[in-house]
Design a protein that fits this description.
Blueprint (H helix, E strand, L loop, with lengths): L2 H35 L5 H9 L5 H15 L7 H10 L3 H18 L1
């Protein structure tokens, strides 16, 4: 390889790197916007998801656990709510995550 071909190859590499960096800066605001705009789950969302499960309750519970982890909850967790969730099909993992996020939300307000 001669110097000219090495220089061409280096130029192409720098152009590709520049393009990747620019694409990252363009995509970053969209990613940040999507994660920030998702509001905490309300009780009705959780109950409707469980009751209308088309993939089966085990799968729906796993999906809801992830949603609760990322979005949190915006409802008071108590005896009646717990009964409603269990009646709708919430499993132990989902209940534990909802309790955790509920307590976490309370502690943030103190």
């Amino acid at each position: 390889m001669n110097v000219s071909s090495l220089l061409c190859e280096a130029t192409r590499l720098l152009q590709s790197l520049f393009l990747i960096v620019v694409m990252g800066f363009v995509a970053l605001p969209y990613y940040a916007q999507n994660t920030e705009t998702e509001k905490p789950l309300i009780l009705e969302e959780v109950l409707v998801s469980l009751r209308a499960s088309k993939t089966g309750l085990p799968t729906t519970n796993r999906i809801l656990v992830q949603k609760v982890k990322t979005r949190g909850v915006n409802f008071t967790f108590g005896g009646e709510v717990e009964k409603d969730l269990i009646a709708a099909g919430a499993n132990a993992d989902l209940m534990a995550e909802i309790k955790f996020k509920f307590v976490e939300t309370i502690l943030k307000t103190l």
